[in-house]
Amino acid sequence: MSDARLHLVPVRSREAREFVRLWHRHHPPPVGQIFSVGAADSQGTLRAVAVAGRPVARYLDDGTTLEVTRTASDGVRNANSMLYAACWRATKALGYQRLITYTQEGESGASLRGADWRLIASRPPRAGWHTRSRPRTDRGTDHVARFLWEAP
């Protein structure tokens, strides 16, 4: 087993997408991104990634806000907190003013609290995105309450 002392590493889009595909519990890799960052152990093995992009909700896409659209890890402790904090530092360094993310009902938010993020809103479950004029497949995340978090 690799040493769990973690450090930040750059991660290219393709590598981040593949890591999310392998390790994320309920979402596919995001379509686009502004940046991604990883956490590697002392052997250089990638253990977790975070992907930040434009906010999914159009009304939050104001040009000054980014969203952490995915984090995924192999279960190594404290990696997600490290990545959430790193994403906020990178977001500010790029000139953005706000960083948000969502958790689903049943997820504790411990990694976000560990990075000093604040819970700012609760979103009720969506009935789904499918309409007759624009058919969409349920990906298993409809009908689940979500919580909106904001970086400090």
Word description of this protein:
- With 152 residues, the protein is α+β, with helices and mostly antiparallel strands.
- It has three helices and seven strands; from the N terminus they run E-H-E-E-E-H-E-H-E-E.
- It has helices spanning 13-23, 79-93, 110-114; strands at 7-10, 35-40, 46-53, 65-73, 98-104, 118-123, 146-150.
- Strands 1-2-3-4-5-7-6 form a seven-stranded mixed β-sheet, with helices on both faces.
- A hairpin with a 5-residue loop joins strand 2 (35-40) and strand 3 (46-53).
- The longest helix is centred in the middle third of the chain and has 15 residues, at 79-93.
- The radius of gyration is 16 Å and the shape is globular.
- The mean pLDDT is 89.
Looking at this protein, list some descriptive labels:
152 residues, alpha+beta, 20% helix, seven-stranded mixed beta sheet, globular, 30% strand, 3 helices
Q: Which radius of gyration do the C-alpha atoms yield?
A: 16 Å
Rounded mean pLDDT score: 89
H/I helix tally: 3
Question: Number of DSSP strands?
Answer: 7
* Beta-strand proportion: 25-35%
Largest sheet: 7 strands, mixed
Distance between the termini: 34 Å
Q: Helix content range of the residues, please?
A: 10-25%
| Strands side by side in the biggest sheet | 1-2-3-4-5-7-6
Q: What is the approximate shape?
A: globular
H/E element order: EHEEEHEHEE
List segments where confidence is low: pLDDT < 50 over at least 5 consecutive residues: none
Classify the secondary structure makeup into a structural class.
Answer: alpha+beta
